[in-house]
Amino acid sequence: MAAVSETLLASLLVLSIRVSGFPLDKEAKQSRSCGYESCHPTKHNMLNVHLVPHTHDDVGWLKTVDQYYYGDRNDIQHAGVQYILDSVVDQLLKNPDRRFIYVETAFFYRWWKQQSAAMQQTVRQLVNEGRLEFVNGGWCMSDEATTHYSAVIDQMTMGLRFLNETFGPCGRPRVAWHIDPFGHAREHASMFAQMGFDGFFFGRVDYQDRSRRMVKKEQELLWRASDSLTPPSADLFTGILPNGYNPPEGFCWDQSCSDPPIRDDPDLEDYNVDEVVEQFLTVAHNQSLVYKTNHIIMTMGSDFQYENANLWYKNLDKLIRYVNALQANGSKVNVLYSTPSCYLQELHRANLTWALKTDDFFPYADDAHDFWTGYFTSRPALKHYERISNSNLQTCNQLEVLGGPTSRKGPFGKGTSQTLKNAMAVAQHHDAVSGTEKQHVANDYAKRLAGGWQHCQVLVSNSLAALSGSTSRRIFCDSLNISVCPLTESSRKFSVNMYNPLGRAVVWPVRLPVNGSAYEVLDAKGRSVDCEVLPVSSATREVRRNRGYALNELVFEAQAPPLGFTTYSVSLLKNEPPPAPLQHRTPMAIQNKFLRVTFDPDTGLMSGLSNLKTKQTIKLTQNFYWYNASDGNNSASDQPSGAYIFRPNSSTPFLISTTAQTESVQRPGVQEVRQRFAPWVSQVVRLYAHSRAVELEWTVGPLPIDDNLGKEVITRLDTSIKTSQYFYTDSNSREMLQRKTDFRPTWHLKQSEPIAGNYYPINSRAFIKDDVDQLTVVTDRSQGGSSIYNGSLEIMLHRRLLYDDVRGVAEPLNETSDVFPEGLVVRGRLLLFLDRPASAADTYRPLAQKVVLQPMLTFTDGDLQPNTELEFSGLQAALPPAVHLLTLTQWDEDLVLLRLEHQFQRWESKVNSQPVTINLQKLFSTMKVVGMSELNLSANQWKDEMRRFEWTPQTGERPLLRTFQDPSVWEVTLRPMEIRTFLLRVR
Known about the structure:
Elements: H1 2-21, H2 26-31, E1 47-53, H3 65-70, H4 81-92, E2 100-102, H5 105-113, H6 117-128, E3 132-134, H7 149-167, E4 175-178, H8 186-194, E5 199-202, H9 207-216, E6 220-224, E7 235-240, H10 273-288, E8 295-300, H11 309-325, E9 333-337, H12 340-349, E10 353-357, E11 365-367, E12 370-371, H13 380-403, E13 409-410, E14 413-414, H14 418-427, H15 439-468, H16 486-490, E15 493-500, E16 506-514, E17 518-522, E18 532-535, H17 538-544, E19 552-560, E20 564-574, E21 589-591, E22 595-599, E23 606-611, E24 616-628, E25 654-655, E26 661-666, E27 670-678, E28 681-688, E29 694-700, E30 711-719, E31 726-730, E32 736-740, E33 760-762, E34 765-769, E35 774-779, E36 783-786, E37 792-800, E38 826-835, H18 841-852, E39 856-861, E40 871-873, E41 883-892, E42 895-902, E43 916-919, E44 929-935, E45 952-953, E46 971-974, E47 979-986
Parallel strand pairs: 1-8, 1-9, 2-3, 4-5, 5-7, 6-10, 10-45
Antiparallel strand pairs: 6-7, 11-12, 13-14, 15-20, 15-39, 16-19, 17-20, 18-19, 20-40, 21-22, 22-23, 23-24, 24-25, 24-30, 26-27, 27-28, 28-29, 29-38, 30-37, 31-32, 31-34, 33-36, 34-35, 35-38, 36-37, 41-42, 42-47, 43-46, 44-47
Organism: Takifugu flavidus
EC number: 3.2.1.-
Enzyme class: hydrolase
């Protein structure tokens, strides 16, 4: 009886969540005829040409997001998004047949908030009638190569939630639309499928791939985007648009275009209707030859078009009228206003089979020497700042939930995460984190992230005060990577609070800039903690440019509980004497209980790596090189390297130095070999006492250009592993994909760029392996990389170029700053470890999550307040190793959005690639879950109401969607690579 009561109670609470969680406009619900119901009829015995009026509005590129919205700085580019939306709405009202799609919710949200109630109601009616349709619906159109999946999910959720709450079901996009990103990630397709999209359209595809697909009529296909999720969970119909995202040549009628308008008065000169119609029929016929059905799509618009929508619609009205008039004379062409979803519906009705694809669309080239693989690394400092900002945002979201209402308005004032959410969402744009924007726009993205973090700091301080009982002022030190923190440099006694956003305990090395020579560190239970005082490296002193004055670093390993914090007290013991001097000879080896790293004493370079637990040893050398960037003047293709394109003028990079000057530090807690290869390249090879990975902390820059040569700097690991041309990279930091040098799974590659044509995005990890050994590298940001030679793995770290690559940004990628006017200095970390292939994922999966979601350190000066809680965990118990807590964020006053994911692929681990069951009522320590309901991945549909089109691959099989029964009302089971999203009512 108790079980029945619990089930009934849960059902009632689920219902209450549904009623309160997704408010709908009742009037709109009654009168709507949107989505597939709003499509214009087609003619089954004709070629139906779907005209899709659209605009592509970059959320920052040549101008900042604000400048684009308002139409400022038109000297750079004429573009004003607010005028586009004003003009389109006006024109849609003049003819009910007209259609328009809009994509970037970040812009639409701004415009919507400025409209009168009457105008908002007018727009709602247009949406309810399907005349204005939203596609994609994220805050932006994200990049696919350099984004982390968690940030992509967040920005899609934010945009789709606004559309859901503003327009109800008619605001929900049916189609994903990534017309401009430069290559397409398999994980993005998987996410879009799990978000409920029926199809996906994009514009850019490799020129060789497109040519083959045109011949075989495979520009529309079924993409199986996961090797772990049961089909068709991650199957997504995918269409490659015929003209990128532009109109056919000769049919652009925007104020930014120069094509002649349709002149249809026969009494006037230059009457051209017959000529235009004939030209259009030719274009339509030619396009139909390379697509599979009697339906074709034409994108009628482009970048920031429709500012004067009358120009477009007046000519499109005429085009439709005059082409269709020929049907009376036997023409078999039918032209109509349409949308991507209406076009998709007709393809689905055709009930055909479609080519099946299981790899991805990287790398992308638009010609033989034009590989868009440079942006995998462009602006490495911004890429890292975006990744750190994501970690800060997740911590901010979690603490808002755990700390309760006090987090938002507490002892330190009103705190909010919304500003950082907005900044992070904008930063996912395909000309933001990608590094393909103008310099002043990159500065604006960074400024927004910094401003958002300032707002979040108030929330974090309030929450930690509520959870710890201490209202002492908290200090944030955001420059610890260059040993700068005024508090720790000057204070004789302070405390360190370490918050861990992961769902399991974490051990993390804490490095604090200090000026004393001996310290006492006590943990939350008052026990003494082993610590070391090391001299600050010369590279750090150079890079901080008088922004800090610490001579030493205090180093200790801290351990924080899952989804919680711990507190360490630090006291100065003495200032003299200084730490033991550095050794200037290269040690033969550094090692802990897990790993041993050997060095060549003559060169100062690494020579080998051993896993002491598995008794593995490989030869391993590592060094730094630079590719000479092509300037485009001495090649047949005339294509220089730039923000987008990587084009070295030789396949052989220049070695920066055959030897490294070294200093070494060998202490019980940490061992370091500090290497200097050139005035602008240095590295610390570091091994902590309890680490399973070797840390390579690299510092590169300013890249010298006094020789007038652009430089693209790589580090290369050369090993004894027999790779047979294969290597592996991650897709948006989730599933691993196999790569092979000079090979594409989909078509026979004619390789024209042996370096750039083999580069792939690395979001968080890459590895090489044979039957015995696997060497894995975990990165701290998105970077480009490859395995050009058997047994090697190279990663591009920094780029400085002197020429534009003629892809629109119109300035070279030559970053400087006020602090570094001679060129940007970038610092980062690679984590390196050796394991058996069968068990490597058990290490690299949690390690990569730990790098992405780093512990947050806050500081208080002096003694701790009495009765301060020094340790806290928001979980009743640590999550199992296979389960990652992806999202914990406040949704409404008593509603919390939770995402749990299984972080292993089904083939990766004998131990962890098994289903795992979690009890949601036994998850949290500070709140009770009293109701729950499951949503789709983007949290804009109830999971059990999500219906998607079914498609049949050419293999003939049509997999049925399997549904798995959870063990009980509160227990949920996660299978490999599954993400489950829940709306929880808590108290």
